[in-house]
Amino acid sequence: MGNPKQKWTSEEEEALRAGVAKHGTGKWKNIQKDPEFNHFLYSRSNIDLKDKWRNMSVSANGQGPREKSRTPKPKVNTDSPATPLPIAQAPGSSALVVVDPASTDVLMDDSSQCVLDGKTTSKYNAMIYEALSTLKDPNGSDISAIVSFIEKRHEVPQNFRRLLGSRLRRLVAQEKLEKGPIPKPKEIRPRLSQVNSYLGGTLEEAAVAAAYKVAEAENKSFVAAEAVKEAERVAKMAEEADAFLQLAKEIYDKFGGFI
DNA sequence: ACTTGGGGTATGT
DNA sequence: ACATACCCCAAGT
Questions:
Q1: What nucleotides of chain B have any atom within 7 angstroms of a protein Cβ?
Q2: Closest residue (CA to C1') to nucleotide B11 in the complex
Q3: What is the CATH number for A18?
Q4: Amino acid A68 CA to nucleotide B5 C1' distance, rounded Å
Q5: Do A239 and A128 belong to one domain?
Q6: Chain C bases near protein CB atoms (7 A cut-off)
Q7: pLDDT tens digits for A43-80?
Q8: Pairwise CA distance, residues A65 & A111, whole Å
């Protein structure tokens, strides 16, 4: 009747995940009110968040269809901000100890072997941002420094340096990174204003939204240098948004000279 | 005022 | 039919 049913967008889901990661399960109202997530969740109620979380948890779980009569909850739940995330949250969640190939499989085992492409890419991006933001080399960190930093912190394949090299080139090509000073979200916004002034039309909204998301996501990955899990998630977010931004740029390249 | 569990309806296989 | 996704209600705190 009143509601045509509003499907949850991936942005909303991400916001919800992030919110739960920060506030813990059950603090739905807090998450909804949090200015950091309210931009994505303003149209959802705390109850909606709860329901969505339930659904996500159910489908992310291997096969636990909606059991009602089963498992009447053996645990009373210690109610700590650490929660049964539907996707992530590694065994030793709090520390910097991460990613050794043996333990990671616990979270993404089901789809691990085939489609790793996108996921590893995101992971590498996250590592790069982590390295850059930690090293904070004003002249820009050279590749050796980045490699050695990451090697100290993560298990990486033998050809990692090669991978990293192409990865970096790509990021620079996409202007998500610069050679020289560390990347700043601010670098992106002025660019967009060009697009805006030329197009000024329907795409403006999309472009601004995309740019804002990229900026926000990248900005976050600085803060999240210590929380690698978060960084991974954020990197994925950035990549999604970046696709949008690319589109906007292409359009600008085509029509920018005329309009 | 919020959280929580149950349930209802639409939609996809 | 069954499972899933979204929404709503009523009870408990």
A1: 1-7, 10-11
A2: A5
A3: 1.10.246
A4: 10
A5: yes
A6: 3-10
A7: 999 999 999 999 988 776 655 566 554 444 443 444 44
A8: 19
For residues A102 and A128, membership in a common domain is answered with no
Q: CA at A119, C1' at C3: how many angstroms apart?
A: 28
Same domain, A55 and A156: no
Can you give the distance from the CA of residue A185 to the C1' of nucleotide C7 in angstroms?
38
Q: Is residue A74 part of a domain?
A: no
Half-sphere exposure of A103 (CA within 13 A, CB side): 12
> What's the total number of domains in chain A?
2
**Gap between the Cα atoms of A108 and A87, Å rounded:** 8
d(CA A149, CA A131): 6
Quick one: pLDDT at residue A79?
41
- A181-227 pLDDT tens trace: 444 444 434 344 433 333 344 444 444 445 445 544 544 443 333 34
A98 and A125 together in one domain: no
- Amino acid identity of A157? P
Residue at minimum CA to C1' distance from nucleotide B10: A5
Can you give the distance from the CA of residue A51 to the C1' of nucleotide B8 in angstroms? 14
Residue A249, both tokens? 């740029």
Domain shared by A97 and A125, yes or no:
no
So what's the pLDDT on residue A55? 92
